[in-house]
Design goal:
The chain has about 325 residues and is α/β, with parallel strands linked by helices. It is built from 10 helices and 12 strands. The two termini are about 30 Å apart. The structure holds S-adenosylmethionine and iron/sulfur cluster (SF4).
Length: about 325
């Protein structure tokens, strides 16, 4: 079957799937405390999610990331993981991975490893229990650290994602760099996208990554690296520890030219760009026939409409309407 090539010559090889918009945490920059979730009836079943993923794999997608909401709170999520792991076994898929808050990893780490998941991204903004509670509105740092320990013991390679939240002076960044070095984890800092409709009212905590880099540079020797992974991260080597630090500045446009990804929501909407409203309904064509003909047609039409780049200007405080709205729906 033909690969998915958009009008700008970019081949789509990476599918991110938000398997649920629900979460057991309420990180203030991500969701309002009293957020209302999509009605359960609108959700694609795990079997339907598996069918859409398999259609993408048939069209050349080599990497699938499960995200959310919190992917591991979706009931029976391992049904989907097991279904997708057959594509790893056949060699059709290079990588099956997920982004998680780690709360459920004690329960699932071993089975994830058995299913062929090799590495995972874990979102952890702080190692301080009080601050963790202030950010996630949950007093569960110990549970998260235990989940991370379980994942490490299961042999999963771990990358920590930390959203850059101010003020810098807390020492949080240095602590995280040192902890990740000690544990052997990767580390990426993510610039916070404008908060707004999350009810957090904490936009004063926005911290530009340029400032983080400058401050870390006062402690360690940071050497910028040329490598990219086709995504928004830029990498820097910490000479003293040998660590590679990632910096994700979501509002900059430098990565659009090499964008290889699309995002599927738990209701079957395909977003062709995180920073645009362009979306395609895959649920209707999925349900209209038992064969994948209409679904494939809808996927082709969607890829033909992938925008060249995102449509918001860089800088804090801008366009919360596009991104803030569907962060937990599209999975970031
Ligand atoms: N629940 C999982 C987790 O937290 O890893 C997966 C979904 S979460 C939406 C994916 C990522 O989006 C997390 O790393 C989170 O920190 C990030 N995120 C959420 N809201 C954000 C925002 N306003 N700005 C930047 N990153 C954000
Ligand atoms: Fe949940 Fe992840 Fe959003 Fe935090 S960032 S509320 S863990 S979905």
């Amino acid at each position: 079957m033909s690969p998915l090539i958009d009008p700008f010559g970019r081949t789509v090889t990476y599918l991110r799937v938000s398997v649920t918009d629900r979460c057991d945490f309420r990180c203030y920059y991500c969701m309002a405390e009293d957020i209302s979730f999509v009605p359960r009836d609108d959700l694609l079943s795990l079997e339907e999610l598996g069918r859409v993923c398999s259609a993408f794999v048939a069209r050349g997608v080599r990497k699938i990331r499960l995200t959310g909401g919190e992917p591991l709170v979706r009931r029976n999520i391992m049904v989907l993981v097991r279904a997708l792991s057959r594509h790893l076994e056949s060699g059709a898929l290079d990588e099956l991975t997920l982004t998680t808050n780690a709360s459920q990893l004690r329960r699932y780490a071993d089975e994830l490893a058995t299913c062929g998941v090799k590495r995972i991204n874990i979102s952890l903004d702080t190692l301080d229990p009080g601050r963790f509670q202030a950010i996630t509105r949950q007093d569960r740092l110990a549970q998260v650290l235990d989940g991370i320990a379980a994942a490490k013991a299961a042999g999963l390679k771990i990358k920590i994602n930390k959203v850059a939240l101010g003020p810098y002076e807390t020492g949080e960044f240095e602590t995280m760099v040192r902890w990740c070095a000690k544990e052997g984890f990767g580390l990426t800092f993510i610039e916070a996208m404008p908060f707004g409709e999350t009810g957090g009212g904490r936009a004063d905590e926005f911290l530009p990554l340029s400032e983080v880099r400058d401050r870390l540079g006062e402690i360690w020797t940071l050497t910028p690296l040329d490598e990219t992974t086709g995504g928004p991260a830029r990498y820097t080597l910490v000479e003293e520890t040998g660590q590679k630090l990632g910096f994700i500045t979501p509002l900059s446009a430098h990565f659009c030219d090499s964008c290889n990804r699309v995002r599927l929501t738990c209701t079957g909407i395909l977003y062709m760009c995180l920073g645009q409203n362009d979306a395609a309904d895959l649920r209707t064509p999925l349900r209209v026939a038992a064969d994948d003909g209409p679904l494939m047609e809808a996927i082709d039409k969607a890829i033909a409409a992938k925008p060249s780049g995102h449509g918001f200007a860089p800088g804090p405080g801008n366009d919360r309407s596009v991104i803030g709205r569907h962060m937990n729906l599209t999975g970031g």
